Amino acid sequence: MKHLLSTTDPTIIAFAKALLQGEDINCFEMDVNMSVLEGGIGIFPRRLMVANDDYSLARRTLLDNGIELDDPK
């Protein structure tokens, strides 16, 4: 799996997941339960992961819809 997106905004994660599902791209959201440690204030970013084979299409889909992505490493 490859890291696609990190954000503290849950609405961006929800929008990104909906866009990816519309393209039949499976994604996995990581760090969802970090709110237990942070007290629900939203300081730890959530990460969205996709399969290696889907990475290019997923990246293009999100960029085409105005979602800014982290630079790949």
TrEMBL record:
Organism field: Roseovarius phycicola
Annotated DUF2007 domain residues: 1-62
Enumerate the InterPro entries for this protein.
DUF2007, N-reg_PII-like_a/b
Name of the protein in its database record = DUF2007 domain-containing protein
In terms of superkingdom, the source organism counts as Bacteria
